[in-house]
Amino acid sequence: MTTSTSIVLTEQDGPIGIVTLNRPKVLNALSPAMLEAICQALETLDANPDVRVIILTGGPRVFAAGADIKAMAEASPLDIVRMNTLGYWQRMQRINKPIIAAVSGYALGGGCELAMQCDLIVASETALFGQPEIKVGIMPGAGGTQRLAKAIGPYRAMEMVLTGEPITAREAHACGLVNRLVPVERYLDEAKELARTIAARPPIAVRLAREALRYGVETTLRDGLAVERRNFILLFDTHDQQEGMKAFLEKRKPEFKGE
Ligand code: DAK
């Protein structure tokens, strides 16, 4: 099934929802309309009980070249506040299902931040990750100074943010920003393969493990461990925990129901 607005395409392939940014003429620049369309697509798939994992992708040439510079060029601070761009990013953070970014070509500025907002990143060998905001007189505003430093370390992140120069997919893979690096013909298939593996796992355990991991990078070790412990215990109240362990002991494949 494929549905589309002009700028974002949404497709469902079994348990996988695929959101494709589709404004190639401006390299998928993240205008407010584009961010709204992405949020709506993600929220629709998040609410669909048949979808277990979401892939967010662009085209082979570009994932996204960042926020729309045209829309920001004449903006005052008040305009920026009124645009409420941050609101879109906060909506994305509330998605409960795992999101895999399938990145090929440019992932720059807000585009790099969009990929880092996802849980896993599959990249083609042609992908370029960068925070070039400094070159147009600003700085990252949607997590680029924070998530990047946590993902690749403060020194590498500092160099990227202060020079504005991108790193290649190979470098991003070597420093832990990219989970899987594949030739350009394979990036979407590889993301689907990863999505299918996760979709076959018990959904409540996936959700609670993801929640604990995401929470853990934002908080203290003590708080992160408390959430981990609570979620771990909660899982012993699920059908899938009983099924998973029973199936292991009976040497058969488990049938997870998401209950
Ligand atoms: N915005 C608008 N248009 C863009 C664009 C962008 N970010 N990137 C590319 N385009 C447009 C170009 O203007 C051009 O349009 P026409 O001239 O054809 O009308 C078309 O896309 C093709 O681009 P190029 O001709 O430049 O293509 P090239 O292959 O030569 O170069 C490039 C590709 C990706 C190297 C180059 O386009 C480029 O450097 N683009 C800009 C990259 C950039 O600086 N990105 C960071 C933008 S700032 C916020 C949160 C986050 C942000 C802001 C606020 N809040 C929470 C408030 C994020 C800010 C950013 O991302």
General description of the model:
This protein is of the alpha/beta class and 259 residues long. It has helices at 32-47, 69-72, 77-83, 85-93, 110-117, 147-152, 154-163, 169-174, 187-199, 203-218, 221-234, 239-249, and strands spanning 2-4, 8-13, 16-21, 53-57, 62-64, 99-103, 106-108, 120-124, 128-130, 167-168, 180-182. Helix 1 (32-47) packs parallel to helix 4 and helix 10 packs antiparallel against helix 11. The longest helix has 16 residues, at 32-47. The chain is globular. The model has no long low-confidence stretch (mean pLDDT 96).
Short account of what is shown:
With 259 residues, this protein is an alpha/beta fold.
Q: How are the SSEs placed, and which strands pair?
A:
Layout: E1 2-4, E2 8-13, E3 16-21, H1 32-47, E4 53-57, E5 62-64, H2 69-72, H3 77-83, H4 85-93, E6 99-103, E7 106-108, H5 110-117, E8 120-124, E9 128-130, H6 147-152, H7 154-163, E10 167-168, H8 169-174, E11 180-182, H9 187-199, H10 203-218, H11 221-234, H12 239-249
Parallel strand pairs: 3-4, 4-6, 5-7, 6-8, 7-9, 8-11
Antiparallel strand pairs: 1-2, 2-3, 9-10
Helix pairs in contact: 1-4, 10-11
Give the tags.
4-stranded mixed beta sheet, 2-enoyl-CoA Hydratase, Chain A, domain 1, alpha/beta, binds 4-(N,N-dimethylamino)cinnamoyl-COA, 11 strands, 259 residues, 2 domains, Lyase 2-enoyl-coa Hydratase, Chain  A, domain 2
* Count of spatially separate domains: 2
Number of strands: 11
What is the helix fraction of residues, given as a range?
A: 40-55%
Low-confidence stretches: none
Task: Name the ligand types.
Answer: 4-(N,N-dimethylamino)cinnamoyl-COA
Summarize model confidence as the mean pLDDT. 96
Please state the overall shape, judged from the principal axes of the Cα atoms. globular
Per the CATH scheme, the topology name of the largest domain is 2-enoyl-CoA Hydratase, Chain A, domain 1
Order of helices and strands: EEEHEEHHHEEHEEHHEHEHHHH
Corresponding CATH architecture of the largest domain = Alpha-Beta Complex
Determine the CATH superfamily of the largest domain: 2-enoyl-CoA Hydratase, Chain A, domain 1
Largest sheet: 7 strands, mixed
Tally of contiguous helical segments:
12
Quote the beta fraction.
15-25%
Physical arrangement of strands within the biggest beta sheet: 1-2-3-4-6-8-11
Class of secondary structure makeup: alpha/beta
The end-to-end distance, rounded to whole angstroms, is: 26 Å
CATH class of the largest domain: Alpha Beta
- Assembly form of the protein: single chain
Rg over C-alpha atoms, rounded to the nearest angstrom: 19 Å
